[in-house]
Every structure is written in structure tokens, then in C-alpha cells.
Automatic annotation (TrEMBL):
<dbReference type="InterPro" id="IPR036938">
    <property type="entry name" value="PAP2/HPO_sf"/>
</dbReference>
<keyword id="KW-1133">Transmembrane helix</keyword>
<keyword id="KW-0472">Membrane</keyword>
<feature type="transmembrane region" description="Helical">
    <location>
        <begin position="127"/>
        <end position="144"/>
    </location>
</feature>
<feature type="domain" description="Phosphatidic acid phosphatase type 2/haloperoxidase">
    <location>
        <begin position="89"/>
        <end position="193"/>
    </location>
</feature>
<feature type="transmembrane region" description="Helical">
    <location>
        <begin position="89"/>
        <end position="107"/>
    </location>
</feature>
<dbReference type="InterPro" id="IPR000326">
    <property type="entry name" value="PAP2/HPO"/>
</dbReference>
<keyword id="KW-0812">Transmembrane</keyword>
<feature type="transmembrane region" description="Helical">
    <location>
        <begin position="178"/>
        <end position="200"/>
    </location>
</feature>
<feature type="transmembrane region" description="Helical">
    <location>
        <begin position="256"/>
        <end position="276"/>
    </location>
</feature>
<feature type="transmembrane region" description="Helical">
    <location>
        <begin position="212"/>
        <end position="236"/>
    </location>
</feature>
<protein>
    <recommendedName>
        <fullName>Phosphatidic acid phosphatase type 2/haloperoxidase domain-containing protein</fullName>
    </recommendedName>
</protein>
<feature type="transmembrane region" description="Helical">
    <location>
        <begin position="61"/>
        <end position="82"/>
    </location>
</feature>
<dbReference type="Pfam" id="PF01569">
    <property type="entry name" value="PAP2"/>
</dbReference>
<feature type="transmembrane region" description="Helical">
    <location>
        <begin position="151"/>
        <end position="172"/>
    </location>
</feature>
Length: 304
């Protein structure tokens, strides 16, 4: 079997580095520049509209994200890893959740937000709610069997996107806060995958492929929302001057939501790929070893 160690170790390193650079770029563009601050704040302020039904749904989504609920999910995640006899994945899932949420709180405290847009807002990047939702969803995908990971990723992406957009709708966060949170979680995801592969006894595992059930909807979402977000922000920037205090903008709101959806879809696609890579080969070898042991015990083959 071909040794895939360099590629299997290089992939998480590259993804992790890109996630870190993406977080820094998001902070620089949307916090340290006038146009970025203007568009980001205009998107947040533009959600102040009368839509009782939508507001009710988003409020329920936010209220459902409690610390107790997240802790419970984490306990279940660890239990699944133990039941599957994959304690390494259980530990990795716990490290992912704790590391991502700790990093988000650290960045939120140390990063500053200069009042370029003449508004004395404190820094809110990255979003804690989005980090919590995404990190738990990533952990669930990691510990589940490969057969259901695509479905779990799709459900997790939908839940995370709802949480992220709800925080903007409630004017708790700007779109860039959610984007940075997703990149922080992806970075920690890549780090724990690297750790899992470094500590794995089998360094030549074959590459598994995520199911199209999860890949296609996520890919289509990204392909539609990414250009929509880019065009929307360009239109919003061209329609208003950047020298005054940001005004609520419906175009910026729609563009921000599309941008969040695109980043969520992209990060979950990358995570599904990283989490699935190599699992199929390991599972096959475990089944072969188990069948051989059973045959030895029944005397159908002679143990050497």
C-alpha cells in the first residue's frame, strides 16, 4: 500500500495555516479599515425591521444555544468516541471544542476596534455563539462513523448558519464576527486532525471520500452564496459614501447573510474532507483483523 504520510500530514497543516491567515485578514479588512467597518456595521444595523415571525424563529434558535446544552452534547460526543473504541477521537473532539472557544474569548479580549466609523463599539470579533455552535458540530462529525458523517455535517452546517445569522439579526454581532469564528473553529479542527494522524499507529491509511449527500448541498450553497455576497457588498459600497456614520443597509444585510452561508458551507466542506480522509482504510483493516482473529479462534486457519 502506498505511503500517504506526507499528504495526510500536510493537508491539515495547510488548512490550519489558511484558517489562521483568514482570521487575521477578516480582522484587518472589517475592523481596521473604514470601508470594512462601514459595511459590517451597516449590515448589523440594517436588521432592524419589523418581521415578527422571523424574529421569533431566530430568537428561539439563539435561546436554544445554552451552556448546559453544549456541555451535554460534548459529553455525548466523548461517549460516542469511547463506545466506538476510538478514544483518540473523543479526546480530539474535546480539545477542539475547548481550544476553539478559548481562542475566541482570548481574541475578543485582546483585539481592539478603532472608532474609524465614528461609533464607539467594542470589539466583538469573533462571535462566541457561532464558535460554540460550529465547534460542537465539528466534534459530532469527528466522532461519528463515516457512513453518517456527511448527514451530520449538513445538519451541523444548517444549525451553525442559523445561529450565526441570528446573532447578526439580533444585533449582537456583525457578519465578520461569525466569519472569524468559523475560521477559528476550522483552524482548531485542522490542528486536532494533525494530532490524530501523528498519534495514529497506521500511517498508510487509504483515503476515504465523503458521501455526496453532504458534499453536494454544501458545495451548491457555497457556489451560489459566495458570488452573491461579493456582488452585494460591492453594490452596497458603491451606493453609499464611506465618510459618514454607517446607515442601516438592506443590501449589506443580505450580503452579510450570504457571506456567512458561504463561509459556513466552505468550512464544513473542508472539515468533512479532513475528518473523513483515511477513515475508510482504517475501518477496513480493523474488520480484516477482526475476521482473522475470529477465524483463528474457530480453527479455520492456523495461527503462526
Amino acid at each position: 500500500m502506498t505511503d500517504m504520510t506526507p499528504r495526510r500530514l500536510g493537508a491539515p497543516l495547510v488548512v490550519g495555516a489558511l484558517a489562521a491567515l483568514g482570521t487575521l485578514a477578516t480582522y484587518h479588512v472589517f475592523v481596521r479599515t473604514i470601508s470594512g467597518q462601514w459595511l459590517d456595521t451597516a449590515a448589523m444595523l440594517g436588521t432592524d425591521v419589523e418581521h415578527p415571525r422571523l424574529a421569533q424563529i431566530l430568537t428561539r434558535v439563539l435561546n436554544g444555544t445554552t451552556l448546559a446544552g453544549l456541555v451535554l452534547v460534548c459529553v455525548v460526543v466523548v461517549a460516542v468516541g469511547v463506545v466506538r473504541r476510538r478514544p483518540g477521537l473523543a479526546v480530539a473532539a474535546a480539545v477542539l471544542v475547548l481550544g476553539a472557544n478559548g481562542t475566541t474569548q482570548f481574541l475578543k479580549d485582546v483585539l481592539t476596534r478603532p472608532p474609524i466609523d465614528r461609533l464607539e463599539f467594542a470589539n466583538s470579533l469573533p462571535s462566541g455563539h457561532t464558535t460554540a455552535a460550529a465547534s460542537v458540530a465539528f466534534a459530532v462529525v469527528l466522532v461519528l462513523p463515516e457512513a453518517v458523517r456527511a448527514t451530520a455535517a449538513l445538519c451541523g452546517a444548517g444549525y451553525t448558519a442559523a445561529i450565526a445569522i441570528a446573532t447578526v439579526w439580533s444585533q449582537w454581532h456583525r457578519p465578520s464576527d461569525a466569519v472569524a469564528a468559523m475560521l477559528v473553529v476550522l483552524g482548531w479542527g485542522a490542528l486536532v486532525i494533525l494530532g490524530v494522524r501523528l498519534t495514529s499507529r497506521d500511517r498508510t491509511a487509504a483515503t476515504g471520500r465523503p458521501s455526496p449527500l453532504g458534499v453536494l448541498p454544501l458545495a451548491l450553497t457555497g457556489l451560489v452564496t459566495a458570488p452573491a455576497a461579493a456582488l452585494g457588498f460591492l453594490a452596497a459600497k458603491a451606493s453609499e459614501p464611506m465618510t459618514t456614520t454607517p446607515e442601516p443597509s438592506r443590501i449589506a444585510v443580505a450580503s452579510g447573510a450570504a457571506g456567512i452561508a458561504a463561509v459556513v458551507a466552505g468550512t464544513f466542506l473542508l472539515w468533512l474532507w479532513l475528518a473523513t480522509d483515511g477513515e475508510r482504510g482504517q475501518d477496513v483493516r480493523r474488520k480484516v483483523a477482526s475476521a482473522r482473529s475470529a477465524a483463528v479462534e474457530t480453527g479455520s486457519i492456523r495461527s503462526t
